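Quick illustration, no need to memorize.
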Amino acid sequence: MDFILAGLAQAFGLLATGDSATWSAVQATLKVSTCSMLMSMAAGLPLGFLLGYFDFKGKRPLRTVLDTLLALPTVFIGLLVYAFISSRGPLGDFNLLFTLGGIAVGQTILAFPIVTALTAATIEGMDPHLKLTLISLGAGRKNIIATCLWEVRFGILAAAVTAYGRVMTEVGISMMVGGNIKWHTRTITTAIALETGKGMFANGIALGLVLITIAFAVNLSLSFLRKQ
C-alpha cells in the first residue's frame, strides 16, 4: 500500500511541476483523439441519420455489419492500418506510419461504427408522430430533418462522448501504428503501459489521473448541456 501512496504523491508532483514528458503525452492524446473524433463524426453522423430515418432494402444486413464492427479489437485495427500505411502497403507513400496522423486514421475506424450505430439507434427511437406532425404543419424536408436532429441532440452527444471515451483509452492502435515514440507519438495510454512496465509507477499514475480528469470533464460537459 505504501508504494501506491508514494506513487500518488509523486504523480501530483509531476503534474504540478509540469513534467515535460507527461504533458507531451497528454498533448499528443488530445490532438489525435480530437482529430479522429472530428473525422468519425463527419462521416458517421450523416450515415447514422440515413440508417435510422429511412427504410430501404438491405438496411437490416447493413445494421448487422455495423453492430459487429462495434466489437472490433483495437489490435486488429492497428494491424490493418499498419498493413496499409507501411512502406510496402498501398498507402505507404503518404508516410503515415509512426505519426499522429496514422494513429488518427486507426482511431477514426474505431470510432466510426460507434458514432454511426448509436446515432441510428437514437433516430429510430425518436417519437414516430413527430415526422407526421411536422408534415401536417407544412414543414419542408430540410425543416423536418433539422427538427428531428434537434430533438435527438442529446442522444447524438451521448454517442460522441461514448466514442471519445473509447478512442482516448485505446492502446492497440496507438502502440502498433504510432510506435510509442517519446515526444512524438507517445499517448497517455501507451505511456502508462510503458512506464508501469519500467517500474515508473508515479508516471503511470500521473497520466492515469489526467485521463480520468479528461473523461470526467467530458461527461460533466454533457450533463451541463442536458440541463440547458
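Residues 41 and 60 are 22 Å apart (CA to CA).
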